[in-house]
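Hi there. Long-time user, first ticket. I'm pasting a complex I've been working with (about 872 residues overall). I'd like to know whether the download I got is complete or cut off, because the file seemed smaller than I expected. Thanks.
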Amino acid sequence: MPPTESLTDLGVRDAADALRRRTITSVALVEACLARIRELDPKIQAWAHLDADGALAAARERDAESAAGRVRGPLHGVPVGIKDIIDVAGMPTTAGARAFAHTRPTRDATVVARLRAAGAVVVGKAHTTQFAYRDPAPTRNPWNHEHTPGGSSSGSAAAVAIRMVPAALGSQTVGSILRPAAYCGVVGLKGPHGLVPVDGIVPLGWSLDHIGPFARSVADTAVVLGVMAGREIVPTSASTPRLAVARQLFDRADAGLRQHLDAVVKQLAAAGAQVSEVALPREFGEIHAAGQVILESEAAAYHEAMFAKHGADYGPGFAAMKPIGLKRSAVEYVVANRARHAFRDAVIPLLEAHDALLSPTALGPAPAGLGWTGDASLCAPWSSAGVPSISIPTGLDATGLPLALQLIQAPSNLERLLGVAAWCEGVVAFRAKPGA
Amino acid sequence: MPPTESLTDLGVRDAADALRRRTITSVALVEACLARIRELDPKIQAWAHLDADGALAAARERDAESAAGRVRGPLHGVPVGIKDIIDVAGMPTTAGARAFAHTRPTRDATVVARLRAAGAVVVGKAHTTQFAYRDPAPTRNPWNHEHTPGGSSSGSAAAVAIRMVPAALGSQTVGSILRPAAYCGVVGLKGPHGLVPVDGIVPLGWSLDHIGPFARSVADTAVVLGVMAGREIVPTSASTPRLAVARQLFDRADAGLRQHLDAVVKQLAAAGAQVSEVALPREFGEIHAAGQVILESEAAAYHEAMFAKHGADYGPGFAAMKPIGLKRSAVEYVVANRARHAFRDAVIPLLEAHDALLSPTALGPAPAGLGWTGDASLCAPWSSAGVPSISIPTGLDATGLPLALQLIQAPSNLERLLGVAAWCEGVVAFRAKPGA
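Hi, the file is complete. Here it is re-exported in full:
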């Protein structure tokens, strides 16, 4: 049995392999994770709710199943964290909000039920910003505790980065998976809109909400997303991928990140990638405003009754959206939705003509301070378009904060996106991890 | 060469077969159609614009191609009519509105381009209610000129019924294909939402608009819809179909139609159909109001600028919708859209569990008078759900007006729907045609 530290270093597939070969037990792995959480969470605050007893009981059950030759699926015995907008039977769902919004579901969200059916052990609920919008979670960035981990899936990203769990679920309506993944130096993935069932999950904006995994490798996120989607997702192998670079996206990044990513792109080209510059369709100009109108309208529709009853209990970020969302007209919403679909229709052929479109995931490394979860504008277009995107860590800046690259593809090419991302990950070979 | 009358009696497939075998020419067929239009349209008023010269030129071209052994596709040489919200290059698009809304497109809508690529000859533009909403077209019902032909695809339905063309295109946002098909004693079909491209077509409500064909047999509508969709659509053969009857839909019909359709259902059962009673999901209760909110909002979004400039030029039906649509909130729209998707999600398993759901198409035969195009409430749920539906004529009432049955299926089962509809059509064997 390896020592505790290397147990928590295991990624999803390595852990699952070791569990299948029975060179480790689920109980040992879960205990190691729980020990690390107990040690580090007072500082990191990734967890809103832990279920140590439940997790250990599930781990014992998985080990007994393994001993009897029964392996549930690709996550058999692997501990995972769940963003606290997603129902886990028997645990509270707080959505990062005050008591008025808390529930204690008796049923798993379908996505959680699928994880368990594939053998996963749910350790607990990870902190989210309030209702997955802008009011921050208490979570700190594992690389520098004075910096935001990003949001809204703050706890999930931080927990995976600091090796409390090999994988965790998050959600992205604007930039809530890929941005915290970038800030925390892990891989964050979302599939095409609609790939993963969203029942049992507190919505932010239905037509924009994507549920996806955090893990520490592309292959690991692919395994978890496959379980979530209810079908195996096998990255296509890539060797000389055709990568598209849109200067207008790179130019949004701060100078340090831009310089870093230019070097990464050169490194990818040197390894055999064909890199071409592309221009985004003119409909790109409308997509940010359109996405915001859609989000505000859909969030207002979900929260309307709660606004009326509990308006004073919302954080300032959400409260600021309330009057805007409630006042939007149907015509504004419909026009925004038309703009969104026009962008989607215009950009998909561009995406399909390459193996991936490259973009910075964020404007720079995680901003200092815990009062703001950072700018999501480079993730937002791909949430609004409903197309798959993935963020991979590519290095550290001079202060030791992670930097990241975003790869984007068309909805029907998820496997191709993952293959290219894995290829880029291999070339870049990011190995750093945050100190405890 | 058969006499003129039997030429215009030919349906799409029979005409195409005869043209392929060169026992008739496209010029003769188009001339026969034009002669019938000249004779009858002063009374019927199905046509907003005729292009006799263009149609004859196209027919000559098709005949020359046939003589050279070139057949464009399944509609080679077949005359068709196009609802006047759909762009045909070189013809005006009036959308049944006043001059402010008229255009003279230089490009065909994709759906028209596909018809022509498959060999069809466009004869002209068929009358529509104003912007495909409630303000009536001048068209009269061929079975009784004092009755409405239904709307909004009034001209298309009437023209096919009175044998001016073997097929015509219409659109349905609420009940604008199937209802006029029922009132005029022809077959009206719409596929799942999104099957047919809608570029070059004046929208009413984007997320509800379906483009589909009128013809005089199920097989003929399948051929035309296949061309429109860009893929062959072959009805699945059916022998002992499992038919679902929802009493709550039959109970909406007037006594005469209910009695007639009860007899039709008995006739189908006697011919081998397994008929079972089903209850619609409770979400059905919300769908009518939801669809109306969606339509008003989307129509207002499209017309907003024109309302401001030409508000006084709209008919009273559309004008009545204007203030409602402009005042709808985004929250109302989003809630309606959620209700629509909830109904769709709930009803699709019910549809998939049978070969077709049966419903009256309309509440009764075509109402008397030309000021109102009739009630669309039995068609509306299936437009809002975006699922395929078809209306077939089943008989005449005591006054000689057509009665009709609607069949409904899930989006992925269009071919099955068509197979069952063709089977029912064969059992019912409706043969009547309106006198000239």
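A couple of notes from our side: Chain B touches chain A at residues 206, 293, 296-298, 300-301, 304, 325-335, 338 (CB under 8 Å). The CA atoms of residues 18 and 24 of chain B lie 6 Å apart.
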